[in-house]
Amino acid sequence: MNDFALRKARNLGCAAALAGIAALLLGAVARGQDEEKLTLQEAVRLALQNSPDVRLARVQYIAALDEAGVNRAAFRPNLYTGAGAAYTYGFPSLPGGQAPSVFQLDYQQAIFDPYLKGQQHAAEERAKNQRIEMDRIRDDVIVRSATTYLELAKVRHSLDLMHSEEASAEKILEVVRARVAASQELPIEVTRSQLTLARVRERIVKLEDRGETLDARLHDLAAIPDSQPIEVDTKGVSFATGPAAGETEGDMINQAVGKDRSVQEAENERAGRAHILKGARLSYFPSVDIVGQYSVLSKFNNYSEFYNKFERNNVNVGAEITIPLFAAKTGANIALAKSQLNAAELSLEKRRQEVRADVQQKVRRVRELDASCEVARLDLQLAQETLQMEQEKFDQGRITLQEIEQARLDENDRWLDYLDANFAREQAQLAALQATGQLASVLP
Question: Read out DSSP for 158-175?
């Protein structure tokens, strides 16, 4: 090869190397941009923004408001118009006693109708319940997305620890094999070390599968494209769930019962039943409607033959008062409303008792898991301090590689125990916050 060809080959090689380095740098920048950490608050916000359940609940709430508006519309002006023609032979009259007209304009508005007003108030209370249901679904989405995020963070942290544990188990196996070859260990120790390594790898496989499942679920909840990786913060979080300063646990539980959405729904249902009962009782009184009518009568229906004075344009305006003389339906409505109100009151009291017991159990569960988490933390701290002491002994040649690696295995196990205990506490804290109505203030 001549000098020119050699220089050309070198230049091409340098160019290719520079291009490769540039591609690696660009790829690293792109990965760094794609794998920007997703915070817990951001994950929750995206889940709420893209949740079909939240959107459906919002539409159902609007539908409940519109349903209440249908009952309310009877107490507002209602104007109808129409036109037509009818053939009559003899006295001009339509079914119902109304005279046939070419054009007609009717006005109707209820002024005093107690039973209809009670139905309207009951529908408004049901609309409040739908709003409460929308808030409950919102909290469910918050808990589901936060739990998925926290568990994914735990799994990824656990995987890092398990890979380190795998490396330690492999070193122990190599040392044991060497000692068995030197007749310093029994062959059974090789099998025991292989079993330890196999168990570590089994846990890694399970954690990887669980991590992939959680990653896909978080992508769906937050509506993040599948091609975009998610990097979560593996640092643990803690949600304050205990009583405030100067507040007892009983006070917190009583406040939680008052804020509980199922209790609020039961209270709204009772209020709606009370409105219906009140309206049914007032139905013994007359109902009042404002009515009006403007009609244009035709010339071909022979009105002049039956009336001394015939006027084509007619206007009628006044109040229509309906006086119930004997209405068996009113008594039946009152009896039904009474029984439904009694059932609603009993259901409300029962729900309060259930919520009180449930909140008390969840608050105590958080306290128990706080204690368990503290035990796991101290156990981890002890393992870390023990490992530090073993490392010093190893540096001084006082213990073997097998012993120091075993200490690392023990520390990794304590780390895994602590992560599990901390995640269980986080789950219990989220459940307690949801039960006490404080979830939105912690994860807005």
Answer: HHHHHHHHHHHHHHHHHH
For the cut 80, the answer to whether the pLDDT of residue 153 exceeds it is yes
Is 200 within 8 Å of 158 (Cβ atoms)? Answer: no
Question: What pTM does this model have?
Answer: 0.75
Q: Tokens 């406040």 label which residue?
A: 255
Rounded-to-integer distance, Cα 211 and Cα 154, Å = 9
Cβ-contact 404, 108 below 8 angstroms = no
Residues 277 and 338: their CA atoms lie apart, in Å, by: 6
For residues 266 and 344, the answer to whether their CB atoms sit within 8 Å is: yes
pLDDT at position 286 = 87
- β pairing state of 287-296 and 103-112: antiparallel
* CA-to-CA dists, residue 48 to 36, 141, 215, 223, angstroms: 20, 7, 17, 10
> Tokens 């404080």 belong to which residue?
438
Q: What tens digit of pLDDT does each residue of 47-59 get?
A: 999 999 999 999 9
Tokens describing residue 131: 């709003």
Secondary structure (3-state) at 322: strand
List, as one string, the DSSP characters of 337-372: HHHHHHHHHHHHHHHHHHHHHHHHHHHHHHHHHHHH
Both structure tokens of 215: 């990653």
The Cα 158–Cα 195 span in angstroms is: 20
DSSP 9-49: HHHHHHHHHHHHHHHHHHHHHHHHHHTPEEPHHHHHHHHHH
| ∠ CA 417-423-425, rounded to 5° | 105
Residue-averaged pLDDT of the chain: 84
Which pLDDT score is estimated for 247? 64
Handedness of CA 198, 204, 207, 211 (dihedral sign): negative
Distance between CA atoms of residues 338 and 276, nearest Å: 9
CATH architecture assigned to 36-76+113-285+324-442 = Up-down Bundle (1.20)
